[in-house]
Amino acid sequence: MSTYYKLGKRAGRIAMYNVIDYLESSAVRYSDKTAIIEEDKSITYSDFLDKCKRVGSFLGARLFFNEPIIIFMDKGIDTLMAFFGAVYAGCFYCLVNPELPKNRLLSIKEVLNSRLVITDDENLDAANEIFEGLDVYNIKALKETEVNEDILATARERHIDTDPLYINFTSGSTGVPKGVTISHRSVIEFIDIFTEKFGFKNEDIIANQAPFDFDVSVKDIYSTIKMGATLVIIPKKYFSSPAALLDYICDNKVTTLTWAVSALCLVTTFHGLDYKCPDTVEKILFSGEVMPVKHLKQWMEHLPDTTFVNLYGPTEITCNCTYHIIDRNRDYDGKIPIGKAFPNERVYLMDEEGHIINEPDKAGEICIAGTSVGLGYYNNDEQTEKAFTFNPNVKGYGERIYKTGDLGYFNEAGEIIFNGRKDFQVKYQGHRIELEEVDKAIMEVPEVVRSCTIFDEEKSKLYGFYIGSIDKKELNARLRETMPVYMMPTFLIQRKEFPMTKNGKIDRKKLMEERKKK
Q1: CA-wise closest residue to 102 among 110, 93, 114, 91
Q2: Between 308 and which of 240, 326, 375, 429 could a Cys-Cys bridge form, CB atoms 3.0 to 4.6 Å apart?
Q3: Among 347, 369, 380, CA closest to 167
Q4: 37-46: long-range contacts, CB 8 A cutoff, minimum separation 24
Q5: What tens digit of pLDDT does each residue of 111-133 get?
Q6: In angstroms, rounded to a whole number, what is the distance separating the alpha carbons of residues 395 and 458?
Q7: What is the rounded CA–CA span in Å between residue 364 and residue 351?
Q8: Helix axes 472-482, 435-443, angle to 10 degrees
Q9: E-only strand ranges, 411-487
Q10: Number of Cβ within a 10 Å radius of residue 297
């Protein structure tokens, strides 16, 4: 067993330079404990460690140091073996979702310029077709490779903590995909703080909702491995059946949910908590979209002793940069703060001239500095220079920041309130409005469960999609009592459900495509 993870002390903790240190430390402490559960199978820490080293030995014999490896698989135990095996080989990984359209897969292939693909039985034929010309290997064979400690030691000795760990491609569907590159150092720094701040422990059972190519899953995976906890991978099929989903959570006695807002709203939209309440859940941390207060209240009423945390952060940083712990005695008036910065992260609000905003109620672009900021977009210097720039207010040295494109403002308590996207500000009927403000007004109608407002710039039409029991004529009349005429949607469209992206967000593009077909 390696002892690299004992290389020194930092801030009272054992210094970690490679995420493998988490795995090896937990495998020593919790050798026979279940590390990961995947529906009808599971694996212990010792067995998982062994398989990861086998995969790493196979890859290390075939690749150069710091090469990207494509993982073309659905999420599961084998996928995590491929992740950690890539790291053992001194490389970094990129999970490429097999469900993506072929043209996007080909674009990602071109950006990564990888030489090797890991897949499984289910996706082998598709991998050979899409990644023609690359070396495609089945994870089944890699797991049977004999461990080569010399290969693993050589890779480990060359490693430094600013080496890349993974690439996640942004979810935009047009243009060249942008692969956000995140280092070991960024993940270790964040996970150390994240698990300590929110009281993660080795007894935790963490239910994974997010796809493995979405950075919410980074919190699930590395919090589990660091703490020696247990990760329960929830099959995607359960998110179309709230009753089955809740049965699965309760059967596994889950303690922790770090989920996208839409996944939590799926449960409350269909009154799943009235069917079964997951009362073993101690903490729920949510992100990805604005949490509707009425949905949060339902969760809080059913789980009176559970801690709820609102998290914020774009893909271009490591998971999150701000947090707000929900105060059960506070009236949020429809606006839950994204809160304050995590330790060792700096969050600025900047106006269009680059000046820092400190006063309350004045909106500016959210910009982030610190270790959490990504290494940039892989093989895309032009886009990297646009988004990963330098703080114009810092003189004498370069403070690197990421400009999110999100807007926010400080409330009187100094908390940041998310105020929409810069590109969600639209000019409608001569007025500049925020689409989130329209959503907020619609959501305040008691009979409305969810809302999504979309602007068709070409036709200058505002579409208010909603889920709820109220008739659209009645909704229109109610909104006119509280909403300025210039903010009223051109059309209100009642739906039974919203299409979702694979990352658990409302699929705005698909909503409009479905609308245009009618």
Answers
A1: 110
A2: 326
A3: 380
A4: 37/230, 37/231, 37/232, 37/233, 37/252, 38/76, 38/77, 38/233, 39/233, 39/235, 41/77, 42/77, 43/77, 45/228
A5: 999 999 999 999 999 999 999 99
A6: 43
A7: 5
A8: 110
A9: 416-421, 425-428, 431-434, 448-456, 461-468
A10: 13
Q: What band does 179 get if pLDDT is binned at 50, 70 and 90?
A: very high
Task: Please write down the HEC assignment for all residues of 302-330.
Answer: HCCCCEEEEEECCCCECCCCEEEECCCCC
Check the CA dihedral 221-226-227-230 and report its sign. Answer: positive
Over residues 70-85, the pLDDT tens digits come to 999 999 999 999 999 9
Distance in angstroms (rounded) separating the CA atoms of residues 196 and 323? 14
And the tokens for 308? 């709820």
Task: Give the 3-state secondary structure of residue 457.
Answer: coil
Confidence tier at 425 by pLDDT (50, 70, 90):
low
**pLDDT tens-place string over residues 297-330:** 999 999 999 999 999 999 999 999 999 999 999 9
Q: Give the H/E segment covering residue 382.
A: helix 381-387
Distance CA 462, CA 490 (A): 5
- Separation between Cα atoms, residue 137 and residue 61, nearest integer Å: 14
Question: What does the radius of gyration of the chain's CA atoms come to, in whole angstroms?
Answer: 23
- 4 secondary structure, DSSP code: G
The answer to whether 199 and 256 have CB atoms below 8 angstroms apart is no
* pTM reported for the whole predicted model: 0.86
CA distance 188 to 262: 27
Element (DSSP H or E) covering residue 204: none
- Looking at the DSSP bridge assignments, the partners of residue 477 are none
DSSP code of residue 134: S
